[in-house]
Design goal:
alpha+beta; 2 strands; about 40% helix
């Protein structure tokens, strides 16, 4: 799965934590990770709910606000 945000490379240069969080999500099993809009959030897409919950907990333990969401449709 390919997600693109043309602003993300610039934001990552100014605020490297955006890239770090994206890498952590991918390492935790996300099939894709990206930054929303102008960088208010970094998100991962998971096939496995358990992996998503584990990733969210690790991010919370590191001091980030992290949530798991389920698609409505």
């Amino acid at each position: 799965m390919v997600l693109e945000n043309d602003l993300q490379p610039l934001v990552e240069r100014v605020n490297p934590i955006v890239a770090v969080v994206g890498s952590q999500l991918m390492a935790a099993g996300a099939v894709a990770s990206s930054m929303s809009g102008s960088g208010s959030a970094v998100y991962g897409i998971f096939d496995d709910r358990t992996a998503a919950e584990t990733a969210a907990e690790k991010l919370r333990a590191a001091g980030f606000r992290s949530f798991c969401c389920t698609p409505a449709l």
